[in-house]
């Protein structure tokens, strides 16, 4: 018997995330339980922060942020390099 996999898709609840949700659901096997979670819910946002989610959409599998979703997000150095804060 195969082990169940818990797959969580963190989104902001807008229509642009439907492609990601469709991809995850299309790749999911019968032993995958896919939940789409809305970051506008405070409890979901806290859970996402604890997992290290820095931008959405993001996917966690069995409580671990997927490698494709790690290390992204806004950082000060990149914003300054793009010209933010400069006249």
Structure commentary:
- With 87 residues, the chain is of the alpha+beta class.
- The chain has a single domain (5-81), classed as Glutaredoxin, CATH 3.40.30.
- The protein is 30% helix and 23% strand.
- The protein has three helices and four strands.
- The chain has a four-stranded mixed beta sheet, with helices on both faces.
- The longest helix has 10 residues, at 18-27.
- It is elongated.
List keywords for this structure.
87 residues, alpha+beta, Glutaredoxin, 4-stranded mixed β-sheet, elongated
Q: What is the highest CATH level, the class?
A: Alpha Beta
Radius of gyration: 15 Å
Strand content: 15-25%
Q: So what's the oligomer here? A: single chain
CATH superfamily: Glutaredoxin
Mean pLDDT: 87
The rounded distance between the terminal residues' Cα atoms is 62 Å
Say how many strands there are.
4
Looking at the overall shape, the CATH architecture is 3-Layer(aba) Sandwich
Give the strand order, joined by hyphens, for the main sheet: 2-1-3-4
Structural class: alpha+beta
What CATH calls the topology is Glutaredoxin
What are the segments in which pLDDT stays under 50 over at least 5 consecutive residues?
A: none
Helix content: 25-40%
Q: How can the largest sheet be summarized?
A: 4 strands, mixed
How many domains, in number, for the residues?
1
InterPro entries: Thioredoxin-like_fold, Thioredoxin-like_sf
Pfam families: Thioredoxin_3
Domain Thioredoxin-like fold: 6-66
Protein name: Thioredoxin domain-containing protein
């Amino acid at each position: 018997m195969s082990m169940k996999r818990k797959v969580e898709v963190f989104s902001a609840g807008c229509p642009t995330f439907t492609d990601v949700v469709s991809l995850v659901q299309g790749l999911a096997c019968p032993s995958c339980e896919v939940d789409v979670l809305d970051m506008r819910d405070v409890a979901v946002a806290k859970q996402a922060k604890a997992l290290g989610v820095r931008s959405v959409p993001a996917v966690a599998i069995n409580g671990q942020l997927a490698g494709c979703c790690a290390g992204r997000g806004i950082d000060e150095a990149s914003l300054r390099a793009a010209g933010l804060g400069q006249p």
